[in-house]
Automatic annotation (TrEMBL):
Organism of derivation: Endobacterium cereale
Keywords linked to the UniProt accession: Membrane, Transmembrane, Transmembrane helix
Localisation: Membrane
One GO CC term on file: membrane
InterPro entries to which the protein is assigned, alphabetical: LemA-like_dom_sf, MamQ_LemA
Record family assignment: Belongs to the LemA family.
Record protein name field: LemA family protein
TM spans (from-to): 6-24
Entry membrane topology: Single-pass membrane protein
Coiled-coil regions, chain positions: none
Amino acid sequence: MLYIILGIIVVAALYVVMIYNGLVKSRQMAEEAWSGIDVQLKRRADLIPNLIETVKGYAAHEKGTFEEVVRLRNQAQAVPAGDVEGRAVAEGMLSQALGKLFALAEAYPDLKANQNFLELQTSLETLESEIQMSRRYYNGAARDLNVKVESFPSNIVAGQFGFAKKPFFEITNEADRAVPSVKF
């Protein structure tokens, strides 16, 4: 009888260890995924000053647009590293400002044909695509962790060891979600 009780205790302990290790793995995957987003956002922030300097030469009187992009870039960079929701809001506003910057370029045909501008625009578009992929990966990792944190019996282990849900990196501005209209 003693061996049965010891066997049950050992099996239960191993089960708790397996759950704990699964939670640790999920948390690490979510943190690694956030790091990927952070790297892409840093690359974008580094590219923006070059883009602005290129556009400035053609559109010197559009100073307000440039200042807004720079201000929002700096604001996004100032968000604390772990603040996913704050970073999502700041990056959404920066994306809107970049959209205005590219719309501004439409008014200057010479700028649109400038090789530096085209290269920077292509780099930024590629980066935006990589940010989207990183965001999807992070949200998937956060979802997996959140399911484990909320599901029984792993929620008991999660609660005992301080595992918490991760927020999703989402677009919070409804204007960014809207489908653009194309008119001919």
